[in-house]
């Protein structure tokens, strides 16, 4: 092979190696980008997992603190605690279709005031009092209310006022009404309807005050 042939051969392979080198460089760059993307996703997953674990830890601490604060009322069997919601059967608090608080119900509420005040003050939270009913039309039981929503609202207000009268600061408690929404049992029989006629109380964060304009 002559010198001219060697030059011609090297000239032919030169562009091929250049293209191959460019291809490898591109593949390497793409691999690095993919690797970085995978690492970022993994870091996000780890962060999300850590946040979820911390959230559950805080919720568990909160639940245990609330159980400890309400140990005596819970032991009476007239108060329940489920996922941070304090439940009282409607039959303990009110007669059927009525918003007049029974003496037994007032005693239950009175037993809750002190431990709840301490709990709320330690966490700077408020107490939401929610009223619920079964799905029967109120006309079957009482003519005083337009519907179940109105009945549940009046019962929630009655409980709220009773808590305030027993020492709960009015700025730390408010009422909400749900009527027949959010049942905890079937309304197909009296046992389930009795469970749905209830009042629940739940500590909730205080609303953040908007920043005042300068």
Question: Which short descriptors sum up this protein?
Answer:
214 residues; alpha+beta; 60s Ribosomal Protein L30, Chain: A
Question: What's the CATH C level of the largest domain?
Answer: Alpha Beta
Supply the helix-strand structural class: alpha+beta
SSE order: HHEEHHEHEHE
The structural domain count equals 2
Helix content: 55-70%
The CATH homology group name of the largest domain = OmpA-like domain
Round the mean pLDDT to the nearest integer and report it. Answer: 83
Strand content: 5-15%
| pLDDT < 50 stretches | none
Q: Label the overall shape.
A: elongated
Q: Give the number of DSSP strands.
A: 5
Largest sheet: 5 strands, mixed
The CATH architecture assignment of the largest domain turns out to be 2-Layer Sandwich
As laid out across the biggest beta sheet, the strand order is 1-2-5-3-4
Alpha carbon gap, first and last residue = 89 Å
Keywords: Membrane, Transmembrane, Transmembrane helix
InterPro entries: Bact_OuterMem_StrucFunc, OmpA-like, OmpA-like_sf
Protein name: OmpA family protein
GO cellular component, one term: membrane
């Amino acid at each position: 092979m002559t010198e001219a042939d060697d030059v011609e051969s090297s000239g032919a392979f030169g562009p091929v190696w250049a293209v191959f080198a460019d291809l490898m460089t591109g593949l390497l760059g793409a691999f690095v980008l993919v690797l970085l993307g995978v690492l970022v996703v993994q870091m996000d997953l780890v962060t999300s997992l850590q946040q979820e674990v911390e959230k559950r830890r805080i919720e568990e601490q909160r639940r245990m603190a609330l159980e400890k604060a309400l140990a005596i009322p819970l032991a009476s069997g007239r108060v329940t605690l489920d996922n941070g919601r304090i439940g009282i059967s409607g039959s303990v608090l009110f007669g059927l279709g009525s918003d007049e608080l029974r003496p037994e119900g007032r005693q239950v509420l009175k037993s809750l005031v002190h431990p709840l005040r301490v709990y709320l003050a330690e966490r700077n939270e408020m107490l939401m009092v929610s009223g619920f009913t079964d799905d029967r039309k109120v006309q079957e039981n009482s003519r005083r209310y337009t519907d179940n929503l109105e009945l549940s609202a009046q019962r929630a207000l009655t409980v709220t006022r009773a808590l305030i009268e027993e020492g709960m600061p009015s700025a730390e408690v408010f009422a909400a009404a749900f009527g027949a929404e959010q049942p905890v049992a079937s309304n197909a029989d009296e046992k389930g309807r009795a469970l749905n006629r209830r009042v629940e109380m739940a500590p909730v964060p205080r609303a953040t005050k908007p920043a005042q304009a300068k």
